[in-house]
């Protein structure tokens, strides 16, 4: 019988520069398959991490005393999810952490550097010229996704990118204290989200598993993150 989780509420957290629309397409099928009947995809704002943590606080309150929630996050959304879970023991039934970008401080991270450069370009040139520059060096599907989400973020884009670039993520040592099963999804050919970071997360957590995908597969269908993430989280839960 497929593993499900006693957590009727799932919260989905987008990645840097992405939005709630992509998070829902990428991770809502997993949340539903794992037993959630209420799925909240959080729209990012300039106070990026605080906004994510407030949404998780609200969901935990809605779950009631002793209730637990499911969390799915992409990139910095995954990192914020694990951080919140570490601060909220006993409140998380499981986490899908897709495409984590770094551990600890962002120093030397290509993903953090890219976010900082984007914030600078948006502040200096505006959103549309920055989108044009991004499209020139991105696969078409990614250019389309980011152009849509960057326009939706509008005035919040530069601040959210700046916040992401300076974010101090959980370290492997901290992740080792996680009390919820962790299903990690790594992308084997994405330099901004190195697959070794995903594998480091899975090694660190005591109840975890990792699945891998390719950028091409993600471009064809974002819900590949759901299939890979649900499979990894179910394997992680069986190790308890």
Automatic annotation (TrEMBL):
Gene3D superfamilies per UniProt: alpha/beta hydrolase
Record keywords: Hydrolase
Record InterPro entries: AB_hydrolase_fold
GO molecular function annotation: hydrolase activity
Record-given protein name: Alpha/beta fold hydrolase
């Amino acid at each position: 019988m497929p593993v499900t989780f006693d957590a009727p509420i799932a919260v989905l957290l987008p990645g840097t520069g992405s939005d709630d629309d992509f998070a829902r397409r990428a991770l809502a099928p997993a949340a539903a398959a794992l037993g959630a009947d209420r799925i909240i995809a959080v729209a990012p704002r300039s106070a990026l991490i605080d906004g994510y943590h407030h949404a998780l606080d609200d969901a935990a309150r809605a779950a009631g005393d002793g209730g637990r929630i499911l969390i799915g996050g992409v990139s910095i959304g995954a990192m914020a999810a694990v951080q919140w879970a570490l601060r909220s023991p006993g409140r998380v039934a499981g986490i899908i952490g897709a495409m984590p970008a770094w551990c600890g401080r962002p120093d030397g991270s290509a993903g953090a550097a890219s976010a900082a450069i984007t914030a600078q370009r948006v502040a200096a040139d505006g959103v549309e010229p920055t989108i044009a520059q991004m499209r020139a060096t991105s696969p078409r599907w990614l250019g389309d996704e980011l152009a849509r989400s960057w326009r939706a973020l509008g005035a919040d884009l530069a601040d959210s990118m700046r916040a992401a670039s300076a974010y101090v993520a959980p370290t492997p040592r901290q992740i080792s204290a996680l009390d919820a099963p962790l299903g990690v999804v790594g992308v084997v050919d994405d330099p901004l989200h190195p697959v070794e970071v995903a594998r480091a997360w899975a090694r660190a957590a005591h109840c975890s598993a990792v699945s891998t995908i390719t950028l091409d597969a993600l471009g064809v269908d974002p819900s590949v993150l759901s299939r890979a993430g649900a499979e990894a989280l179910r394997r992680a839960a069986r190790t308890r």
